[in-house]
Specification:
CATH architecture: 2-Layer Sandwich
Structural class: alpha+beta
CATH superfamily: HIT-like
Helix content: 10-25%
Number of domains: 1
InterPro entries: Histidine_triad_HIT (IPR001310), HIT-like (IPR011146), HIT-like_sf (IPR036265)
Strand order of the largest sheet: 1-2-3
GO molecular function: catalytic activity
Oligomer: single chain
Radius of gyration: 13 Å
Largest sheet: 3 strands, antiparallel
CATH topology: HIT family, subunit A
Number of helices: 2
Protein name: HIT domain-containing protein
């Protein structure tokens, strides 16, 4: 059974950062969950078994303390995914 993933990144197509490339499906990944705002996938080369990466579909600033409250809360809501 093949699943069609939502590869929509809410940013510029010129943005080639690692996380945008994961969402676009350009990099090897094992996607385990997604919604309209986030993508969760297992890394193909984990240093810890079962390590899951949660990526927002919209690019956020790098400094966690500078992220607006609403997108940070939405991201943190999935910490026990």
């Amino acid at each position: 059974m093949t699943h069609q993933y939502n590869n929509q990144f809410q940013g510029s197509h010129e943005d080639k950062n690692l996380f945008a490339r994961i969402i676009w499906g350009e990099l090897l990944q094992y996607r385990v969950w997604e919604d309209d705002d986030h993508v969760a996938s297992l890394t193909p080369f984990p240093n810890t078994p079962g390590f899951t990466v949660l990526v927002p579909r919209k690019r956020l600033v790098s400094d966690i303390f500078a992220i607006d409250k609403k997108p940070l809360s939405a991201l943190m809501m999935w910490h026990d995914l």
